[in-house]
Automatic annotation (TrEMBL):
Residues annotated as domain HTH tetR-type: 14-74
Keyword Disulfide bond found: no
Cross-referenced InterPro entries: Homeodomain-like_sf (IPR009057), HTH-type_TetR-like_transc_reg (IPR050109), HTH_TetR (IPR001647)
Organism of provenance: Agromyces protaetiae
GO molecular function annotation: DNA-binding transcription factor activity; transcription cis-regulatory region binding
Alphabetically ordered keywords of this record: DNA-binding
Coiled coil regions, renumbered to chain: none
A Pfam family of this chain: TetR_N
DNA-binding region in chain numbering: 37-56
Protein name: TetR/AcrR family transcriptional regulator
Leader sequence segment: none
Membrane-spanning intervals of the chain: none
Superkingdom, taxonomy of origin: Bacteria
């Protein structure tokens, strides 16, 4: 038995599952659905490829679980921010700092700043909207986010918020962070999208 197999055998199944999904989120996000393989995911997770297949079945099913898990992480982030905002008294909300929409935007920025693979994997899923297996899941994930935001915003506010979020996703996924310091127009765009967190986002993505 290899050392990798021995190590993985010591990890509880639930933890192994999360370990694989963490690795798969990064691999799918970086390589896309077509470029990723279960072998690449297994190596990234430090777990044997046959075990990945036994646990998730096909690459498609693994990708679908990545999309659903990434969506759940975004919704959990929003739910925590909404709960904190709701818990504040009306008088305290001014002191809380910002509108709920601004607070949610900040929470989303922090999430994608520290977990870039989430947004990249979701973007890959949206690109596969034509796929008969993945497309319906990607659309459902998108609408789950819309529905949750619609609970706390009107239709126009929800559309504006999601449009801003997709801009943030595109800026990071496109690799434009590499040009922020050398192209004033790119820097201006990042400041408009991220506000005072622009430098932190660029530093985290570029590994500074």
């Amino acid at each position: 038995m290899s050392s990798v197999q021995t190590k993985s055998d010591r990890i509880p199944a639930a933890e192994r599952r999360e370990l694989i999904l963490d690795a798969a989120t990064q691999v799918f996000g970086e390589l896309g659905y077509a470029g990723a393989t279960t072998d690449r995911v297994a190596r990234a997770a430090g777990i044997s490829q046959p075990y990945v297949v036994r646990m998730f079945g096909t690459k498609e099913q693994l990708f679908i679980e990545v999309l659903e898990r990434s969506t759940a992480q975004i919704l959990a982030t929003f739910d925590a921010e909404i709960a904190a905002y709701d818990a504040a008294s009306p008088d305290d909300r001014t002191g809380y700092g910002q509108s709920l929409q601004a607070r949610l935007g900040g929470a989303y920025t922090r999430l994608v700043q520290t977990h870039r693979g989430i947004l990249l994997a979701l973007m890959q899923g949206f690109l596969l909207g034509h796929d008969s297996g993945i497309g319906p899941v990607a659309r459902e994930c998108f609408m789950r986010v819309y529905d949750r935001l619609r609970d706390v915003m009107d239709a126009q506010g929800t559309m504006d918020f999601m449009a801003q979020g997709m801009l943030i996703n595109t800026l990071i996924a496109s690799g434009l962070t590499a040009r922020v310091r050398t192209d004033s127009k790119v820097g201006e765009l990042f400041e408009c999208a991220f506000g005072d967190k622009a430098k932190l986002v660029v530093a985290s993505v570029e590994g500074d």
